[in-house]
Amino acid sequence: MSDHIRRPATLITGANGEMGHGLIEQLAKEGEHAIIGLDVHPLDDVIAEKCAATITGDILEPRLLERLQSEYEIHTVYHLAALLSTRAEFTPEAAHRVNVEGTMNLLKLAIEQSRWHGAPVRFMFPSSIAVYGLPDGKEKRKLGRIREEEYNFPTTMYGCNKMYCEHLGRYYSQHYRQLAADTLIGGIDFRCIRFPGLISAVTLPSGGTSDYAPEMLHAAAQGKPYSCFVREDVRIPFMAMPDAIKALLLLHEAPREKLTRSVYNITSFNPSAGEIRAIALKAFPSVDIRFSPDDKRQAIVDSWPADVDDSSARRDWSWSPDLDLDAAFQEYLIPEIHQRYSR
Ligand SMILES: NC(=O)c1ccc[n+]([C@@H]2O[C@H](COP(=O)([O-])OP(=O)(O)OC[C@H]3O[C@@H](n4cnc5c(N)ncnc54)[C@H](O)[C@@H]3O)[C@@H](O)[C@H]2O)c1
Asked: Is-contact 297 209, C-beta < 8 A?
């Protein structure tokens, strides 16, 4: 039996993904947590060595969940495992299984953990601007910043999955088995962030609809031509990955009594695709970046807001990004991506 067993632990699902990499780096720096990293793919060595335990397995696998239940004392879950928006649209039923049933499995695990060790389990859930469904691009341009409760009519399977999981999290934390004699309300402390498109310098994006921004940069740094699948004038909110990790940790640490909602918007900057191209060209002048919009993917991006209102997060848990557009590109993305491909 190794030393992480029965030590208070933090479980990260989807640990080998873009966000998992950044989160594990940061949690390991803080050093307080015995990190259990779980992913359907083996964890990269660089993050595996920072975990007290790594598990390769599927969150839909009952035996894996039983093992987690019996071997670990889990106080926080960062439930990052998901099939992202583009992939989910090709395999909607599989997306439902991973994104919804997988989340149910983790919520259930968290409730049982809480019953077992007697403290609420903090359940951190990354939702997405994909939960919004604006009527069309014309309407989108007229609207200002969108609040959490507006336009909740997702047009993608991924958006529907995230929206429902936001409700499941609220149900499990505030109403779970409300009619039972041994009601377990309060076993889960569910905290959710609706992330904008995320751009990481460290990992390559895979399967998201906002991927055109990071793909453009990563292609430019390698001197490869890039054909962008949305129109030049399209605009959605983005954030650099270090700020996404900062937000998860800030919300995790926020005193419960300060939180006025279970789901929060956050944002940092919202350049058009053309503006991102201009930044990429300034850093990598000889590259060929063109726009050849795919009508179907364009329609999905047109249903997402050009900007979101994150005033609740700013008020309740002092959210503010460290990296604005200029700093994100000039101080983080371009130098790191440059270095990555010049090695
Ligand atoms: N990247 C973004 O722009 C963005 C924006 C908003 C929200 N999010 C959300 O943040 C979370 C993390 O996103 P990411 O960018 O790191 O995605 P990612 O695709 O890089 O990582 C997801 C990870 O989940 C794992 N996974 C998938 N199915 C699994 C299963 N059945 N069992 C175990 N592991 C499984 C994958 O192997 C992958 O490593 C996701 O929930 C995503 O929906 C991401």
From this structure: yes
CA 97: distance to chain centroid?
18
Which amino acid type is present at position 216? Answer: M
Ligand 1 centre to CA of 277 (Å) is: 26
Closest CA to 165 of 241, 264, 96, 267: 96
Residue 202 has pLDDT above 90, yes or no: no
Q: Which atom of ligand 1 is nearest to the CA of 97?
A: 31
Q: What residue's CA is closest to ligand 1, atom 32?
A: 58
Per the CB < 8 A criterion, the answer to whether 43 and 16 are in contact is yes
52 lines ligand 1 (CB under 6 A): no
What is the spatial distance between Cα 304 and Cα 177, in angstroms, rounded to a whole number?
34
Indicate which residues carry an active-site annotation.
Answer: 158
Ligand 1 contact via 198 beta carbon (within 6 Å): yes
User: Is CATH 3.40.50.720 what the domain over 82-342 is classified as, yes or no?
Assistant: yes
**pLDDT tens per residue across span 17-45:** 999 999 999 999 998 879 999 999 999 99
Q: Is 58 in the pocket of ligand 1 (CB under 6 A)?
A: yes
**Residue from 89, 84, 210, 95 nearest 156 by CA:** 89
Rounded to 5°, angle at Cα 48 from 82 and 191: 40
pLDDT per position as a tens digit, 242-297: 999 999 999 999 999 999 999 999 999 999 999 999 999 999 998 999 999 999 99
Asked whether 211 lines ligand 1 (CB < 6 A), one says: no
Q: Could you tell me how many residues make up the chain?
A: 343
Q: Whose CA is nearest to atom 41 of ligand 1?
A: 80
Contact between 225 and 290 (Cβ < 8 Å): yes
